[in-house]
Amino acid sequence: MATISEPDPGLSEEPEDTSLDRRERKRRFAGRAKKKAKSRRRGSRQRVTKVTISEPEPGLSEEPEDTSLDREETRKRRFALWFHITVIVSIGLLCILLISLRFNSPSPWKEGREHLLDELDELTLQGWMLHDKNLYRVSTTKKGWRASREDCQKRKADLVVINSREELAFVSRLMDTSWIGLSDREKEGTHKWVDGTPMTSSWRHVKPRDDGGARDCVVAGEDGWSEEPCKRLHHWICEKVLDLDHLEAERNKEGSVMLTEEEEDAPSITEFHSSTHVLPVGQTARYTCHAGGTPEPTVEWLHNGRPLERDGTDDQSEAWVERGFLFIRGGRYGVNTVCCMASNSAGTEQLIMSGSPSDACDLTLDPNTAHRHLSLSEDNRKVTAVEEVQSYPDHPDRFDYPVVLGREALTGRCYWEVEWRGGVLIGVIYRGITRRGGGGDSRLGENNKSWVLHCDDDRYSAWYNGSRTVLPLRPAGSTRVGVYLDRPAGSLSFYRVSPGGGGSSDTLTHLHTFWSSFTQEDLLPGVLVGWGGSSASLCRV
């Protein structure tokens, strides 16, 4: 029989105790888990409220809901930062671009100015001369007034319109009797310029001479203007008016100076000379001219008032330009008047030189014409003003004014020189001038029968028919004047003879030229001697 023994009292409670311990541990573990869960939920809520100011903690990055909110906010912040940086950089680049365009791109004024300077360079090569913002061109052939104007219009210009004394003086220095843009073709006696404006006389002493007949067109010479038949052949002067209005407007906008800038310098002729002063027939002289300035000036040559083509040679020519030098072949055409003209955008300078002519005349004074306070000496070659009355016999040719005329009449071409002291008038006079009365009819330069140059220590001035022209060139120590009459050409020119011992060491500089249609009446050399001690001597050339 089986016997069931009682469990050992010491071990009977062990299973029960083990079960209780396990349940207690589970209960405690569950309590701690609940506390941790609550703690995590509280931490999660705290992190959600702080997302805008701090990054999520790395230990909680595995929570799906929290990570999504953090990443979205981060993307927004990064996008906003990138957008602002992009805008700022774009604005900066735009400003740099605008500044670059402002300073590097040519302005309308600069573009217009550069275009004008290029045009001026091209026109200068074509024989145009710049003066006071206008361009002038002297013809090399002769035509009637209408054909002359058509030639100017083909060159996008017109016959010259003279608006001031300064412009008249410049045009007169071109040394030619030429058609100008003045006529009374529309209405007899009413002169108008080619631009339709009436002739103004406020700066003119006389109106154009009208000798009658069908004379409607006006030619200009240094002795005045006169009407001639429009079909008569003459040289002419074209004038091109530069269009500067748009540049003026741009200049006002930009505060610039039109056609000149601070760094620009007007031309200055630094070298101007000839290889010889006396030029025998058949031989050749070379003229040199150099000029400085900014921008570099162009140098143009004029011979006897005519512009010469650059580097144009001709075996039959009297003058030509080659490699920048002017060459002149000696011949019987009187004084060689050479003009060197340097031009750039800042201005123009010109110098004139003349060589000795081959038409020298040996002249003496006529005692029968001398005023009684004039003393003749040196074989009637010198006249001096004195206080003592000279014992000259009565003669119908004697002047009541301190004048003496030459004995020999002037025909064809003639060159002579006069040495002077004090104050004198030197020139040519018609034989028929009034000798008595002491009025304007007998005073040299105050009538239409005498053309004279007034010389004193300070200045030169030209006189004809009561009109005086003060010349810019001064004696500068020279007391000798050269006179050249080309009667067939209708010109009378005066030159300053610079001291140099005579002969080829002297230098002739052009002073003034009168232009006139001399009549068949005899022309005589003449001198007026102003006050005591003044004198004039006819030199042997």
TrEMBL record:
<dbReference type="InterPro" id="IPR006574">
    <property type="entry name" value="PRY"/>
</dbReference>
<dbReference type="InterPro" id="IPR036179">
    <property type="entry name" value="Ig-like_dom_sf"/>
</dbReference>
<dbReference type="InterPro" id="IPR003879">
    <property type="entry name" value="Butyrophylin_SPRY"/>
</dbReference>
<feature type="domain" description="Ig-like">
    <location>
        <begin position="267"/>
        <end position="354"/>
    </location>
</feature>
<dbReference type="InterPro" id="IPR043136">
    <property type="entry name" value="B30.2/SPRY_sf"/>
</dbReference>
<dbReference type="Pfam" id="PF00059">
    <property type="entry name" value="Lectin_C"/>
</dbReference>
<feature type="compositionally biased region" description="Basic residues">
    <location>
        <begin position="24"/>
        <end position="48"/>
    </location>
</feature>
<dbReference type="GO" id="GO:0005737">
    <property type="term" value="C:cytoplasm"/>
</dbReference>
<dbReference type="InterPro" id="IPR051051">
    <property type="entry name" value="E3_ubiq-ligase_TRIM/RNF"/>
</dbReference>
<keyword id="KW-1133">Transmembrane helix</keyword>
<feature type="region of interest" description="Disordered">
    <location>
        <begin position="1"/>
        <end position="69"/>
    </location>
</feature>
<protein>
    <recommendedName>
        <fullName>B30.2/SPRY domain-containing protein</fullName>
    </recommendedName>
</protein>
<dbReference type="GO" id="GO:0008270">
    <property type="term" value="F:zinc ion binding"/>
</dbReference>
<dbReference type="InterPro" id="IPR001304">
    <property type="entry name" value="C-type_lectin-like"/>
</dbReference>
<feature type="domain" description="B30.2/SPRY">
    <location>
        <begin position="343"/>
        <end position="541"/>
    </location>
</feature>
<dbReference type="Pfam" id="PF13927">
    <property type="entry name" value="Ig_3"/>
</dbReference>
<dbReference type="InterPro" id="IPR016187">
    <property type="entry name" value="CTDL_fold"/>
</dbReference>
<dbReference type="InterPro" id="IPR007110">
    <property type="entry name" value="Ig-like_dom"/>
</dbReference>
<feature type="domain" description="C-type lectin">
    <location>
        <begin position="131"/>
        <end position="239"/>
    </location>
</feature>
<keyword id="KW-0479">Metal-binding</keyword>
<keyword id="KW-0862">Zinc</keyword>
<dbReference type="InterPro" id="IPR016186">
    <property type="entry name" value="C-type_lectin-like/link_sf"/>
</dbReference>
<keyword id="KW-0812">Transmembrane</keyword>
<keyword id="KW-0472">Membrane</keyword>
<dbReference type="InterPro" id="IPR013783">
    <property type="entry name" value="Ig-like_fold"/>
</dbReference>
<keyword id="KW-0863">Zinc-finger</keyword>
<dbReference type="InterPro" id="IPR003877">
    <property type="entry name" value="SPRY_dom"/>
</dbReference>
<dbReference type="Pfam" id="PF13765">
    <property type="entry name" value="PRY"/>
</dbReference>
<dbReference type="InterPro" id="IPR001870">
    <property type="entry name" value="B30.2/SPRY"/>
</dbReference>
<dbReference type="Pfam" id="PF00622">
    <property type="entry name" value="SPRY"/>
</dbReference>
<feature type="transmembrane region" description="Helical">
    <location>
        <begin position="79"/>
        <end position="101"/>
    </location>
</feature>
<dbReference type="InterPro" id="IPR013320">
    <property type="entry name" value="ConA-like_dom_sf"/>
</dbReference>
